[in-house]
Design brief:
about 130 residues; Arc Repressor Mutant, subunit A; 2 domains; 6 helices; 2 strands; about 5% strand; elongated
Length: about 130
């Protein structure tokens, strides 16, 4: 049951570590759509955390469409790897990309206006 791990020394709240870990397990295909997850109790015991914390995370992931819970059967992965990424992850990755792009442009002697003009020309089919 090593789908996810919790670091008690990490200042990030346990529920956030657990949600991030489950999303990462799906995004990296360690668990796939249709896979059954451990029960709330099983995961709580394995991770030595409160069952209410696990239940809270499962419920949040179900509301987000990442998990599907079938009463009396269990909780299953319903999201694809790309759907499992946290919504803010895309924006964070885009900001990091833009930061790297602008740093590289500056190092090469280009201004942001040069970069924007080149992007517009590229978008319009003129590279």
């Amino acid at each position: 049951m090593d789908i996810v791990s919790i670091d008690p020394r990490d200042r990030t709240p346990i529920y956030a570590q657990l949600e991030r870990g489950l999303r990462a397990a799906i995004a990296t295909k360690r668990v796939r759509p249709g896979d059954k997850l451990p029960t709330v109790r099983q995961l709580a015991v394995a991770l030595r955390v409160n069952a209410n914390t696990v239940a809270r995370v499962y419920a949040e992931l179900e509301r987000a469409g990442v998990l599907e819970t079938r009463r009396g059967v269990g909780s299953f992965v319903s999201a694809t790897p790309s759907q499992a990424r946290p919504p803010q992850e895309h924006q964070r990755r885009l900001r990091a990309f833009v930061t790297r792009l602008l740093a590289d442009a500056e190092a090469a002697g280009f201004t942001i206006d040069n970069v924007m003009a080149a992007l517009r020309a590229h978008q319009q089919g003129g590279a």
